[in-house]
Amino acid sequence: MTAVTVKRDTASTVQCMKAMSDPTRLLIMKLVQKKAYCVCQFVDMFEMSQPAISQHLRKLKMAGLVREERRGQWRFFSMNDEFGARDLVLSILNQLDDEDETLRAIQSKEKAVSCD
Amino acid sequence: MTAVTVKRDTASTVQCMKAMSDPTRLLIMKLVQKKAYCVCQFVDMFEMSQPAISQHLRKLKMAGLVREERRGQWRFFSMNDEFGARDLVLSILNQLDDEDETLRAIQSKEKAVSCD
DNA sequence: TCATTATATAAGTCTTTGGTTATATAATTC
DNA sequence: GAATTATATAACCAAAGACTTATATAATGA
């Protein structure tokens, strides 16, 4: 049973694609598809500065692809299931190899957060 | 009968998405999916300068999304069906609305080429 | 061969992007 | 309430993008 894809206009398609057309953001989307992560986890996994990660997350959030949730001193990000272009996002993520080396390397660096 | 999608790595996915993450190039891909167009047709349809169109086409060609064919003094561009990330391209184009206003407006400006 | 037509390329400009460092804010813990 | 921890934001910078104008190339046709 395949859902009928809601067709989208050019502008919103381009906006969504631009948000995901970066290796860091594409992989963040791949990760949050499965569960929520907090900023500091991404910092560890991507071995990237905290401001750099924050800015990538802001872009994804502004574009509507992720949602933010506060838990104590942490902010968790997860996939926004109410996003209009959700089908587009999923079809892109779906053809991204789960065995991809870059993805694997990043996943292997995941650390638990105290509140978990 | 749905074809099995070949999973792709992060780098090639991002490269393909970047090539399509522009309204002009996304719509060019939508157009060449159906048939080949020459540069001068795109210039008319997108109401954009010839060098600008040439440069967009070069990007698409360099990324492997389109192929070029000479017919007399014209150069026709069509979708490259041998492209590795073809499934990704098609799934993106597939969810782009055929009734999209921008697309319609561009299609309405199509003119015939002498050699047609 | 010369003018015309179709296209590419080069060089310049302006904007956007993705990082940096420094600092602000807000919750937690001592 | 002071120090610590998590995060955001601001200001800056270098590189990439998307145009522009000017010019080169290549095929066509007189």
TrEMBL record, chains A, B:
<dbReference type="Pfam" id="PF01022">
    <property type="entry name" value="HTH_5"/>
</dbReference>
<keyword id="KW-0238">DNA-binding</keyword>
<dbReference type="InterPro" id="IPR051081">
    <property type="entry name" value="HTH_MetalResp_TranReg"/>
</dbReference>
<keyword id="KW-0805">Transcription regulation</keyword>
<keyword id="KW-0804">Transcription</keyword>
<dbReference type="InterPro" id="IPR001845">
    <property type="entry name" value="HTH_ArsR_DNA-bd_dom"/>
</dbReference>
<dbReference type="InterPro" id="IPR011991">
    <property type="entry name" value="ArsR-like_HTH"/>
</dbReference>
<feature type="domain" description="HTH arsR-type">
    <location>
        <begin position="5"/>
        <end position="100"/>
    </location>
</feature>
<protein>
    <submittedName>
        <fullName>ArsR/SmtB family transcription factor</fullName>
    </submittedName>
</protein>
<dbReference type="InterPro" id="IPR036390">
    <property type="entry name" value="WH_DNA-bd_sf"/>
</dbReference>
<dbReference type="InterPro" id="IPR036388">
    <property type="entry name" value="WH-like_DNA-bd_sf"/>
</dbReference>
